[in-house]
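Supplementary Note 3. Input sequence used for the single-chain structure prediction.
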Amino acid sequence: MKVAIVHYWLVTMRGGEKVLEELCRLYPQSDIFTNVYDPSKISDEIKKHKIYTTKINKWPMATKYYQKYMPFMPNALMDLDLTPYDLIISSESGPAKGVCPNPNAFHLCYCHTPMRYLWDMYHEYFARSNHVVKFFMKKMIPGLRQWDVMSSNLVDHFVANSHYVAKRIKRYYNRDCDVVYPPCDIEKYIINKRNPQDFYLFFGQLVGYKKADLAIAACIKAKKKLVIIGDGKSKDAKKFERTGYIKFTGRVSDEEVEDYLSKAKALIFPGIEDFGIIPVEANAAGCPVLAYKDGGTLDSIKEGVTGLFFEHQTVESLITCMNEFEQNIEKFGDRKAYTKHVQQFSRQEFIKNISALIDKRQRK
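The predicted structure, written as C-alpha cells, is reproduced below.
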C-alpha cells in the first residue's frame, strides 16, 4: 500500500506537526506533500521521509510569508499528482485536503480545525488586519470558503481532534466524523513531583483569542499572583508587573515549563482552543486547570477531578472559579487520578485509535 500524507506547511514544530510525526511512525514508507518546507525547523522523524512541495515553496520568502500565499494554495494542491497512492491522509488546519486522489484510493482527513480565518474567527482576524489586508480579505475569502466546502467532497472520511472540532466540521462541511485525540507527550510530565506554590500560571502566545488579558485582569482584581509564559508582547506589561501580581517570562525552555507546571497552584486557560495540548500537559504534571467551559477543554479536563470550568469569559466568572478551587483545593491533590485521566491522550493511544479507524474505514 502506497501512502501519501499531505500537511498544510512545514515551517515549525507545533501540535499539528506532532500529529504528523506519529503518522510518519505509523507509516514509515509514506511520502509527505506540503505547500512550504523549511528543513531547519522540522524534526528528524519527519525528515526521514521523502518530502515534496507545491510550487508555492519556490516563491519569494515562502517560508516566512507562507500565510500571505494562502489564496494560491488550492490551485497548487490540485497540481499534485497523487494517483499512485492507495491511502492519502491529509492533515488539515490550513489548505491540505484539496488534493485529487485516484478513484480507488482512500482519503482520510485528520482535521485539527477548519480554517479559523475563513469561518468562526474571520471577524477577529479581519479586525486585527491593516487596510490593505482587509481589502484582499473581502475579495478573496468568499472564494476560499467555496473552495473549502467543495474540497471537503474529495475526502472519504473526516477525523476530528475533539468533539468541538467535530461540530464545526458538521456545520461547515455537513460531514459526520470520528474523534481521535491528538498525541501528547505526557510521559515527560508524569514523572515530575508537585510542589505547589502561591501563584497561578498562564501558558500560551499573547494573542487575542488566548484571552491572557482576562487572566491578568482577574488576578489583579482578586490580588492573586500570575506567571505568564509565552511569545508576544503586552503594551501594558510594565504597568501590570508594577501591581506586584503579574510576571511575564517570555519564551522559556521545556525544562522551565515543566518546573512551572510542578509549582503552579493551577493553570488558567481562559480561551477557546480546538483541542489544547497545554491543559493535558498540565494535568500530566498533576497541575489542575481552570478553563473556560467551551472548546477542546471539554474533552481534555475532567471537571472536579483534574480541573474546574468557569461559565463566562468575564473577570467575575473566573474569580468565582478561582475562589471555588481554593476552597476545595484538597480535592485536586490525587496525582494518580491525573495520571489515569491523561492516558487517553498518549502517543500510544493515538496510534492505536487512528490505525484501527483507518483499517475499519478502508474495509467498508
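The radius of gyration is 21 Å. The first helix runs from residue 15 to 26.
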